[in-house]
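User: Study the shape:
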Amino acid sequence: MHIAMIGIKAIPARFGGFETAADEISRGLIKLGHQVSVYNRAGMSAHPGKSYEGVELVTLPTVKSKNFSTIFHVLFSTLHVMFCRRVDVVHFFTTGATLFAPLPRLMGKKIVCSVDGTDWQRAKWGGFARWYLRLSERLAGRFCHALISDSNEVMDYYQKTHRVPSSCIVYGMRECRSKQRHVLGQFGLKERDYILFVGRLVPENNVHHLIRSFEQLRTDKKLVIVGDDPWEKEYVRALKSTDHPRIVFTGSVYGDGYAQLQQNAYLFVLPDEVGGTHPALVEAMGFGNCVLVNDTLSNLEVIADSGFSYRGVEGPRDLRRELQRLLDQPSLVEEYRGRAFRRAQQNYRWEDVVRLHALLYQRVLKGSATVETPKLAQSAGS
């Protein structure tokens, strides 16, 4: 098969979950003998040349705008794939990219879309963007041959809200480890001496709750916040206004540096309140971190009995209580590092994710809209 992937910023991955997924899936498909073309946005890839481990990179321009960057790039990419490439399947990432899905469909191409939870709920979007994203959910169900959800919660949402079936295919974890420590030294960190957050610095990720909770803890450990967001400058500025001496903002960190920060943390915390599986959580478990999450359905689905949760509706109060409990019980944290790692190994392997994508593409070419996916293990020992 020849698959085109449209809607991400760029690979090699440097930006987020969809970029990491496109990176891993495209390279995995190449190893299975398929052809893959990935559409990058100009200026967002540091990789030279037009090929990346066998994946064709097609770089096209866009406009610099929070609301319109994706739309314009998807339009240019869709026109390119229609008239300049012969592909079997066009895989759009995010429902916001499916406005132009009818065009390649009219030319006989099969259309698949990876949906991004309830993206319209994110606080960063204004009124028009929210309306468009809700509209794009309906368009995805109507014009795509198959949808991919990253959690059972999102799969149920599309079934109940739009009466559209989808296949639940989760994210994978990195299986590499770093032997370096220079990034720890760069930020004045020591092994198992810090709490870690990774993600975009946007209001729905509730980093302000995490900071407020941390400021009230009895601990000598640090709080390390990895991430940034170019469109939320006021929010980021407010976060960084804290005068707590043990809160460290690293900005965005990728590759080996990211691995160093993940694998040496005492505890990983995810206070995000928007549904869907969060790749950083899956990766944290794969790096053997004890994890503490906001008790959304998707987060609880990922951790099962292999991590801890707090009541998100109570905000910083319950988060602080759970953080203090885990800081006071290092033996419990150590036990749950192993449980999280085993669960990640059982359920979140990129090899399985790639295989399921290939199978879904094949099923779509034969006229089917879904593929059977394995049930997540309910416990670390099952």
User: Anything to note?
Assistant: The first strand starts at residue 2 and ends at 6.
